[in-house]
Fold:
Amino acid sequence: MVHSIADSRVGAQTSAYLDDTYLEQVDTRVIAVGERDGTPWAAVEHCVFHPQGGGQPADRGWLGDAEVVPVRDRESGLVVATAAEGGGLPDLAVGEWVRARIDLRERMLHAALHTAGHLVEAVGRSQGWEMVGSIHFPGQARIEFRAPHTDARLGDPDGREEATAVLRAAVARAVADDLPVSARYLPDGRRVVHLDTLHSAPCGGTHVRSLGDLADVVLPTLKVKKGRVRVSYTATHRSR
Ligand SMILES: [Zn+2]
Structure:
């Protein structure tokens, strides 16, 4: 009997969402099934689902016709697709083929917001600020920095407007230059995302292909709260 390559790989999960942000669906095999707190789940070999993490929300997805919420299972390390609230999963057995699919439009928005977050981080760091927090959720995306006390601009409204204008100009320049976005793996397995030579950071999120994919990047005037510089932002994905 001849085993196919695919046969020999059952049991391992590949993070397809890390290789291709725009992969909308894939026919793949179930590698594990189970239950979490009474909710059924299934894990598939080629995982197109990004679970919530790193400041990026979980994808909306489907296994067959059933809506699922992807979650990282701490014990196994697998991304498992749990039944959406009030729903169920098709009756799946290990080894069975199933179609895994994401809401691509929502994924593209998440990737745009996430990548714009890296860009805001980069231009903030270029001001001599240190990033202390980030969130890339739609409607609440922001990067927080600790700035040196010597940055006198942050102490009054005109100065904060001036500092924001510097950030906006740097962001607009990087988007106009369409800087390439890439991810590489270090020998220890860590994944590092690069915005050309402008910025690099360890990251397990989904990104756009180049900064020209970003549209409507808007930075309201930054705020200073409890000694932290808060740079909120919005962004969308350029239509393709
Ligand atoms: Zn990232």
